[in-house]
Every structure is written in C-alpha cells, then in structure tokens.
Amino acid sequence: MRADARRNRERVLVAATEAFATDGPGVTVAEIARRAGVGTGTVSRHFPTKRALYDAIVQDKIEKLETEAAALAERLEPGPAFFAYFAHMVDQASVDYGLAGALSQLGYDVEEAAARAGYDIKRSLGSLLRAAQEAGDVRDDIDVDDVKALIAGCLARDDSTDPDARRRVLEITVQGLRAHS
C-alpha cells in the first residue's frame, strides 16, 4: 500500500472511531469522510461497507479489552481482576456509543467480529469469571452470558441528568455478583 493510501486509511479509522464513539453506529459514511478530510470513495476503497469499517474499529477496541483482561489477570487476585475488568468494560463503553452498541449486541455480533480478528472475548471474560468463582469471590450461579447481560444493563442506564447514575448501577450490579458467605 502506498504511503498516501496508508495515511488516508489511518485518517478514516481515526475519524470513524471518533464518529462512532460520539454518534454511535448510525453515523453516515459521508460524515466519517468529512471528518477524515477525504471523499466517500476513499472510505469505500479501504472499507467496502460501513460494516467493514465498524468491524475494524470494534476489533481494535476488542484487542485493547483483551490486553486489559490479560494484564488484570496477571496483576490482581482473581476476584479483584474480574470486578476491575467488568467495571473497565462498562466505563469504556459508557463513553463510546459504538463500543456500547457492540457490547450490548444491538444488531451487531461482537463475538463474531472479535473471532474474525482472532479474539474470543467470551472465553476471556469466562476465564476471569471462573477464576473469581473458584476463589470464592463471585457467585457460583452466574455464567458468562449473565455477565454480558449485566454489562448491557449497566450501559442502559442513561446518566445524562444524573452523572452518578451509571456508577450506582455498576456498584449495585457488582454487589449482586459477589459471593455471600
């Protein structure tokens, strides 16, 4: 790929990442092109569909989440690692409508997109969950699909009029996940 084509591709990715984060998956290709300072044809040459562009961005975000999961698992005990990762996913998605939509699976299969990039987000989340359960920190009757639904639930809380709302919902959810002795 020529140097100018690489630069244009990167500009499109940066603009699209920002556009999806602020405006969500409904942002138009024309708006992404405008923000990147390129024509819609340039966007289409690099990403034949808006879905392909969204996939590229989500895969990058999933890679970062996977890296964070591995780092937490290395640094922390199982329970704290699981709860930190859970909170991290909610926090990241709360400021990124594109990621929130992907994690909430609103018409988008994030697991499929992650698999195409060589990641298994469900396995990573499941590994952290099982380790926390084995350590006695998380209830045994919770599975990874429950955790995914709880993340989506935390993201569903609109905090536009109450900036502490999502944090409260997160704290309530974490308390509900904890194993009770």
Low-confidence stretches: none
Helical segment count: 10
| Cα distance spanning the termini | 59 Å
Q: Let me know the number of strands.
A: 0
Mean pLDDT equals 87
Concise description?
With 181 residues, the protein is an all-alpha fold. It has helices at residues 3-23, 29-36, 40-46, 50-75, 78-94, 97-103, 110-116, 121-134, 144-156, 165-177. It is elongated, with a radius of gyration of 18 Å.
Give structural notes:
There is one protein chain. The protein has 181 residues and is mostly helical. It folds into two domains: 1-48, Orthogonal Bundle (Arc Repressor Mutant, subunit A); 56-177, Tetracycline Repressor, domain 2 (Orthogonal Bundle). Helix content is 73%, strand content 0%. It is built from ten helices and no strands. Helix 4 runs antiparallel to helix 5, helix 4 (50-75) packs parallel to helix 8 (121-134) and helix 5 (78-94) packs parallel to helix 9. The N and C termini lie far apart (59 Å).
Topology record:
Blueprint: H1 3-23, H2 29-36, H3 40-46, H4 50-75, H5 78-94, H6 97-103, H7 110-116, H8 121-134, H9 144-156, H10 165-177
Defining traits:
mainly alpha; 181 residues; 73% helix; Tetracycline Repressor, domain 2; single chain; elongated; Arc Repressor Mutant, subunit A
